[in-house]
Amino acid sequence: MNRTPPSVGIEGIGLWTAQAPSWAAYRAVLQGAALGDEAVTRPAPALLPPNERRRAPDTVLVALEAAQAACIDAGHDPATLPSVFVSTYGDLAITENLCQTLASAPLELSPTRFHNSVHNAAAGYWTIASGAMAPATAISAEFSMGLLEAVAQLATGAPGVLLVGYDGSAPGLLRQVAPTEGLLGAALVLGPPVAGRPRLSVSLADGQAPAPTTRIAPGNAMAPMLALFEALALGAAHAILPAGDGRVLHVELLHD
């Protein structure tokens, strides 16, 4: 049996955090530029109409901002791509509000907040806003599990896959059990290897991933994925992502 990991092309990249609100800004920070002043605390993805942008939670906005940027970078119509959305916790601010409301005044529970509390909220907003009819997958896990899912979909015939990782802040009591800070989203459009674009292959192994050293959203639950984006930005050949207790995902990179 051939056990050589398949090579996957990286066709587009998107990233947003208040300190570096684009892939270009993130690369500039890695080259020594100053961090942004975080004056803009939430993105405004053009894909969403203004009313939807006002109603959508921050986690949805950052996921869609990164996803749209990756599709533009790849030159892909978002409506044509299957998607994988991966978030460790979903939207904890809404979860905290729902728990407080249920405990104090359950009849005042907001239908809109409940609608936005489900873990596939970002995937739902994305498919509606982009008109995508392709399958959308939502995973509660580390970014490495989303990457494995996307690679598996490509290996089984998908012509391309949009992968989006994101997390937000934990408020109140939830911070004690689900520590995460700031707002971070990043996305890749993956497909067959293409000349002039980087390629990756992945393999699982026993081990412990290095602690994140990023200056970008260091307290965010999805910050470990930035090891891969840093490697892409700097032209490195290897990145290690956490993949559960005692497991890591090795990502080998080739840059054309």
From TrEMBL:
Gene3D superfamilies: 3.40.47.10. Residues 40-203 form the Beta-ketoacyl synthase-like N-terminal domain. Coiled coil: none annotated. InterPro entries: Ketoacyl_synth_N, Thiolase-like. It holds the Pfam family Ketoacyl-synt_2. It comes from the Bacteria. This is Beta-ketoacyl synthase-like N-terminal domain-containing protein. It comes from Pseudoxanthomonas daejeonensis. The lineage of its organism: Bacteria, Pseudomonadati, Pseudomonadota, Gammaproteobacteria, Lysobacterales.
